[in-house]
Amino acid sequence: MADPAAVPVLTIDGPSGSGKGTISRLVAERLGWRLLDSGALYRAVGYAAGEEGIDLSDAEAVTRCARTVKIRFQPSADGGETRVLVNGHDATDELRTETAGAAASAIAVIPSVREALVDLQHAFRKAPGLVADGRDMGTVIFPDAAHKFFLTASAAERAKRRYKQLKDKGLSVTLATLQREIEARDERDASRPVAPLKPAEGAVVIDTTGMPIDEVVAKVFAVVRP
Ligand SMILES: Nc1ncnc2c1ncn2[C@@H]1O[C@H](COP(=O)(O)OP(=O)(O)O)[C@@H](O)[C@H]1O
Ligand SMILES: Nc1ccn([C@H]2C[C@H](O)[C@@H](COP(=O)(O)OP(=O)(O)O)O2)c(=O)n1
């Protein structure tokens, strides 16, 4: 079997709404590489735990859930959004809400939950390459990645982006609440002792405030040069 460590990885970390998912998808498409949306795994565990009636601060029960939950990414038949199946149920719509983001952030502070998801994340590393998006892709999960990026943008701009995204999907949200939730999540993700949100050593930091998506992609490819 080919050595997974020989498969190139490009990591894109950053806070909520910085554009990680969008940029990762575009970069992976252009390189013809696989994609790992690690945030979806944490969201899925938070969701599955909630479905089982588990208190999200019960580290033991949430860890058991993280070890047993079945998460499957299913490309949509019409080329649209990838569906996320959690224990066989299509939970894509539930997972995109800010409630699911907050639940993911809450269970992500539990070290044994993070450990339970490591092998699953490493399994995405398959030829010809992987683009991995999250909080600790460059620092913890793929420290040997060839290219590491960290996207940021002002909290106000990230809240505006998320507001538009959720409104477009028909969800009822307010800008002020979203900005508060995003700032609370930033604070928790960046201050936790294990795998906190921070740029990996040597990561290229891109402040995307006021920068169009194609320009961010161009900045990535200025470094990667396919
Ligand atoms: N540079 C950008 N300028 C404007 N909008 C952006 C930019 N990057 C992403 N977006 C939009 O912001 C929203 C959140 O982006 P997303 O990629 O989901 O962020 P993240 O994965 O970091 O939470 C999406 O609707 C996306 O289209
Ligand atoms: N690699 C990761 C990815 C996500 N998390 C946690 C922390 C985040 O607030 C939640 C949700 O992450 P996700 O990337 O889906 O959220 P955003 O799209 O950035 O809003 O999961 C993590 O701890 N480590």
Q: What multimeric state do the chains show?
A: single chain
Q: Percent of residues in beta strands? A: 15-25%
Helix-and-strand structural type: alpha/beta
Specify Rg, calculated over alpha carbons.
17 Å
How would you sum up the major sheet?
5 strands, parallel
What's the pLDDT, averaged over the residues? 95
What is the number of helical segments per DSSP (H or I, 4+ residues)? 11
CATH superfamily: P-loop containing nucleotide triphosphate hydrolases
Low confidence ranges: none
Which key terms come to mind for this protein?
five-stranded parallel beta sheet, three-stranded antiparallel beta sheet, binds deoxycytidine diphosphate, 15% strand, alpha/beta, Rossmann fold, 226 residues, 8 strands, single chain, binds adenosine-5'-diphosphate
